[in-house]
Amino acid sequence: MQAHVGGRVERPEGRAKVTGKSVYIADLKVEGAWLGGTVRSDVARGTLRGFDFAPEFDRTRVVIVTPTDIPGENVQALIVDDQPILAAERIEHWGEPLLLVAAPDARTLEAALAAIRPRIDPLPPVLDMELSKHAQKQITIEKGDVDAAIRAAKKNGHIVLEGTYHTDSQEQLYIEPQGCVAFPPDKDGTIVVKGSLQCPHYVRKALVRCFGVTPGQARVVQMETGGGFGGKEEYPSVVACHAALLARAARRPVSMIYDRHEDLAVTPKRHPARVRHKTVVDKHGRLIAMDIDVLLDGGAYTTLSPVVLSRGCIHAAGPYRCENTRIRGRVVATNHVPYGAFRGFGAPQTCFAIERMMDRVARATGIHPFALRHKNMLRVGDSTATGQILKDSVGSAEVLAAVAEKTGIDKHGWCAPRDARAGKARGLGLSFFYHGAGFTGSGEEMLKGRVRIDVLADGRVEVLAGSTEIGQGTNALFLAITAESLGCETADVVVATPDTAHVPDSGPTVASRTCMVVGGCLTKACRELAARVGGDVKRPWRERAREFAQRGGDGQVTVQYSSPKDVVWDDDTYTGDAYPVFGWAADVAEIEVDLVTLEVEVKRFSTAVDVGKAIQPALVEGQIEGGSLQAVGWAHLEVVTTRAGKFEQDRLATCIIPTTLDAPKFDVMLVEIPYAHGPFGAKGVGELPMDGGAPAVVAAIEDAIGVHLTRVPATPERIMEALESASQARKQ
Amino acid sequence: MKAIFDEASAIAVTLTVNGTTSALRVPPLRRLLDVLREDLSLTGTKEGCGEGECGACTVIVDGRAELACMVPVCQVDGAVVRTVESTELESLQNAFLAEGGAQCGICTPGMIVMARAWLAECESAGVAPTVDGAREALAGNLCRCTGYEKILASVMRAAGVKT
Ligand code: FES
Ligand code: FES
Fold first, then answer.
1. Ligand 2 centre and the CA of B72: distance in Å?
2. How far is the C-alpha of A300 from the C-alpha of A335, rounded, in Å?
3. Same domain, yes or no, for A380 and A277?
4. Average pLDDT of B76-105?
5. Is the pLDDT of residue B4 over 60?
6. What pLDDT was estimated at residue A732?
7. The last residue of a domain, from among A517, A532, A560
8. Are residues A711 and A650 in the same domain?
């Protein structure tokens, strides 16, 4: 039999995707459905005084929902209960939902939305995170004695370097916009919502609070989903509550599908960040101390910001050994549209800063950037900033060796004078990074994610999980793991649609956890089932399983995740095993800068990634290429700015992401250093490729034209500014 | 945003979509995209932006790739339209499956249709398809999942070119 793990399993939903038969939320035909829309704030902060209705507006033709129509609590349930479903009085951000409308057709809806004008007394907004006085969360991670190391630096002949780094926001830009269809409560009071979403059980939790019902009375079904990248982690709960409130009021199904403009204007994006580093190194380039200060703009409500801050801070010292480390982090409230989950979850921001600082250290000490990283990299037995001793599956040396072999970066003459006759300068840039797999600290223990498998009457096995297929390949992954574990064919396995009425809560499809955590539970469940079914393994699985089912055997196995015993975390002191294991990677970007326009072209992008074990190598490569291009886009061309609290890039014509012409040629090298507790040795890969692209591209720009940039995206305007201020500085 | 038009002003339009001819009464400025998706229930063609920027709605109209979100139906009366549901796209569809060119799949119909139009163009111009040519041809079709590497590989596989 062919190997499923490490081999190639066809996506079970693939044929439908390539023939146009898949049903995404906008493709769902619902008889008698009305369309829902949202009246929003047009100021960043203010007090809502009421609504004016245009005189010609006929209210009887539409259904309107205001906060008083919410049967449960006016709370968008997530971590902290600070965000209302509809603002009743206090308005905290531009685009905040104030009132909902449903209408029988698009024309009537448009007219209604135009006819309803909120009356708002504006208040001065806080739009600069440095000026915010309201911290949504603060974290300190401390190891050794940073202050003493800084004080003794001079005496010890150590070098002290300081740097401040900025990263701007970024739009997820899933190609399918947000959308849900909600059905009115049935006679048992059960609400059904179908939608484009990553985390059905998050949406269910939000509906339970909004409607004051039991979890059994809120049913959430995931449709085929056209990309998420974190953007469909928390926001679908907003759309779902809105659509469901309208469906209840209208007593008919309501479809709420955002157009691209609305999606860009009001949905959460990556947190803007400012990271300061003070670094002490000895003359051999050994890191002596790192003092790091992280500031994130959380936007108007807390949403997931505390967790983003946490992941950002834990990764802030990079994959480096340093006995004295202090990381202080703060995420603050402003009157921006709330920032939220996006692949990497705070780590790309802090990774950019540490990698830029490492390049400064390289220059200051005269040590090659590659050698510097190699010298300081964490190895088995070393401890991270939280004091986590790395026990196994540490691919640091291997990934660095792999990119070096492929690109020659280790021998590349750094910032050597180049021949710029062609009007273009070429450069190479390196980044080295790691990313924790699964929830932080005790998160997985608290979550208790579950997976179930069932033997069907015909002997096939059904996998039931709340994990969603959002393009990354969950379905094919589950087929491969199940078929390999049971010794059956992939045709003997079906993956159930994530529907909260049928599948257990496996935890959200986020945090690079589906393969390692949920896949791990699935492996255990399969082992148990295989033991129960028994029989001669040379006989086909389906025959044996059918007989087992006919014998009345119990073919239902549920497994709940439990962390490996040696994973210990203290949430109060932020010390211990932040993650059960890390994925490791090194990137080399090869770029060309046009010396006239200062436009950057990324020609080639080499990346070596330690994923533990690639259960489906083609899927893993797809994740790495896609994630790396998002990182490359953020590095130099994806601009997201705000004015008066409003995103300026609120059309696809202005919100730019890379096209085929902006995409480099990718060289992906998979390194497999197995993780003992992962399924077949696998660990997470989803977010890792987002971390290293920005610093690698910016380092390559520095290599090409000698300008030290400290902010992404590195647009031609910013490169120009940096060149000008560098030449000013030289003149003085 | 879906343009909204007065249903009362409907006109008669004939379209041959994937070999089937339909006579319709639709408002003249209704987008071809809505006619396909709603009137003909062909939901394989996707809407990613509605403003001509993403390529998800690409269809072939009389042999040319067009953005169905930008075409009022009155402009294509009598046209022959091909969408992702066409049975003539099998080699591209198989190539996308084999190479992993479809991840979330939302850009895939537009990509496949665009690739079909480009390969046909190459053939009629008598030029051999190249990866760089494919990059140019697909530059108006956005994909956020794949990094394009496996999409380009899929198209080259369908073209019978080894990459
Ligand atoms: S939907 Fe037509 S180009 Fe985006
Ligand atoms: S496969 Fe998801 S956008 Fe292309």
1. 26
2. 5
3. yes
4. 98
5. no
6. 76
7. A560
8. yes
Co-location of A392 and A335 in the same domain: yes
Distance CA A232, CA A33 (A): 23
What stretches in chain A show pLDDT beneath 70?
1-2, 415-421
For B28, the token pair is 């003249």
Q: Are residues A550 and A585 in the same domain?
A: no
- Can you tell me the distance from the alpha carbon of A211 to that of A77, in angstroms, rounded to the nearest whole number? 11
Residues in chain B closer than 8 A to A13 (CB atoms)? 105
- Angle of helix A693-705 versus helix A347-365 axis, rounded to 10: 30
The dihedrals phi and psi of B77, each to the nearest 5 degrees, come to -55, 130
Q: Closest chain B residue to A689 measured between Cα atoms? A: B147
- Together in a domain, A349 and A425: yes
Q: Look at B142 and A657 and tell me if their CB atoms are within 8 Å.
A: yes
State the complex-level ipTM.
Answer: 0.97
A505 and A425, same structural domain? no
Q: Which residues of A touch B45 (CB under 8 A)?
A: 20
Mean pLDDT of the residues in chain B: 95
pLDDT at A419: 64
Q: Directed axis angle between helix A347-365 and helix A369-376, to 10°?
A: 110
The residue of B2, B106, B131, B155 whose CB has the most chain A CBs within 10 angstroms, and thus the best one to mutate to test that interface, is B106
Q: What is the number of structural domains in chain A? A: 3
For an interface test with B, give the residue of A17, A470, A490, A659 to mutate (most B CBs within 10 A): A17
Fold category of B88-158 in CATH: DNA polymerase; domain 1 (1.10.150)
Distance B143 CA to ligand 2 centre (A): 5
Q: List the CATH number of the domain containing A346.
A: 3.30.365.10
Strand ranges (DSSP E) for chain B?
11-17, 20-26, 58-61, 64-67, 80-82
Q: How is chain B split into domains, by residue range?
A: 7-82, 88-158
Tokens of A213: 């019902």
Indicate if the pLDDT at residue B71 is higher than 50. Answer: yes
Is A176 near chain B, with CB under 8 Å? yes
Q: Distance between CA atoms of A624 and A615, rounded to whole angstroms?
A: 14
Task: Supply the pLDDT for residue A511.
Answer: 83
For B5, name the nearest residue in chain A, comparing CA atoms only.
A107
Residue-wise pLDDT tens digits, A240-267: 999 999 999 999 999 999 999 999 999 9
The answer to the question of residue A134 being in a domain is no
Output the pTM of the full model: 0.97
Question: Which of A512, A531, A560 marks a domain boundary?
Answer: A560
Please list every residue in chain A whose beta carbon sits closer than 8 Å to the beta carbon of residue B106.
Answer: 24, 174-176, 226-227
What gap in Å lies between CA A323 and CA A311, rounded to an integer? 20
Please check the confidence at residue B1 and state whether its pLDDT lies above 50: no
Rounded Cα gap, residues A66 and A43, in angstroms:
19
Q: Whose CA is nearest to atom 2 of ligand 2?
A: B104
CATH class of B7-82: alpha beta
Residue with the two structure tokens 């499923």: A4
